[in-house]
Automatic annotation (TrEMBL):
Its cofactor is Mg(2+); Mn(2+). This is Ribonuclease HII. It comes from Hanstruepera neustonica. It catalyses: Endonucleolytic cleavage to 5'-phosphomonoester. One of its GO terms (cellular component) is ribonuclease H2 complex. NCBIfam families: PRK00015.1-3. Belongs to the RNase HII family. It is found in: Cytoplasm. Residues 10-199 form the RNase H type-2 domain. A divalent metal cation binds at D16, E17, D108. One of its GO terms (biological process) is DNA replication, removal of RNA primer. Endonuclease that specifically degrades the RNA of RNA-DNA hybrids. PANTHER family: RIBONUCLEASE H2 SUBUNIT A (PTHR10954), RIBONUCLEASE HII (PTHR10954:SF18). The lineage of its organism: Bacteria, Pseudomonadati, Bacteroidota, Flavobacteriia, Flavobacteriales. Its EC number is 3.1.26.4.
Length: 199
């Protein structure tokens, strides 16, 4: 069973990102403040839920959250500052846009940078331990998936509506055949051969 609160503060914000390991598209983060007594037996880490369940939970979370926001950080910025910094930046931008100022932040994973003067804790597998992080993981994933499905229309040969930009065999084959697009992360190892030198 997920827990509703880590810190004891009333306005505790959970944050998580989606799309860190992708070859194309943004890294997307969400920040969510839930009511202190929030409970939902279906809510869990987005990776443990089907796409249908995630899409059903999204409006529930958005309706019941005291405040939420999500942010995309796009490939040009990822390529400039690297994926870890881009992930944290997406979290910071989301927290910054919350209508309610958080008193405490809980973060999925083990990497974060201080946000203003707000105390925080990083929690490994936090998205399967706390409601607010699980909620953030679902919002980040569903909003990012929707974006990838939209850009799929522009470049259907990469099948982003299916692979969402992750490094599937099919996605890599398409890069080999068609090259890269403006949505690809140029700083990433897009093809395994990229690191081999012809000497």
């Amino acid at each position: 069973m997920l827990k509703s609160n880590y810190s004891g503060f009333q306005f505790e914000c959970g944050t998580d990102e989606a799309g860190r390991g992708c070859l194309a598209g943004p890294v997307t983060a969400a920040a969510v403040i839930l009511p202190k007594n929030f409970n939902n037996k279906y809510l869990n880490d987005s990776k443990k839920l089907s796409e249908t369940k995630r899409n059903l939970l999204r409006p529930v979370i958005e309706d019941e959250a005291l405040s939420y926001y999500f942010t995309h950080v796009f490939p040009d910025e990822i390529d400039k500052i690297n994926i870890l910094n881009a992930s944290i930046l997406a979290m910071h931008r989301s927290i910054d846009k919350l209508e309610t100022q958080p008193e405490y932040i809980i973060v999925d994973g083990n990497k974060f940078k201080p946000f203003k003067q707000v105390p925080f804790e990083t929690i490994i597998k936090g998205d399967s331990k706390y409601f607010s992080i699980a909620a953030a993981s679902i919002l980040a994933k569903t909003h990012r998936d929707a974006y990838m499905e939209a850009i799929h229309e522009e470049f259907p040969m990469y099948n982003w509506k299916q692979n969402k930009g992750y490094p599937t065999k099919e996605h890599r084959e398409a890069i080999k055949k068609y090259g890269i697009t403006k949505y690809h992360r140029k700083s990433f190892r897009l093809l395994p051969e990229q690191l081999k030198l012809d000497l």
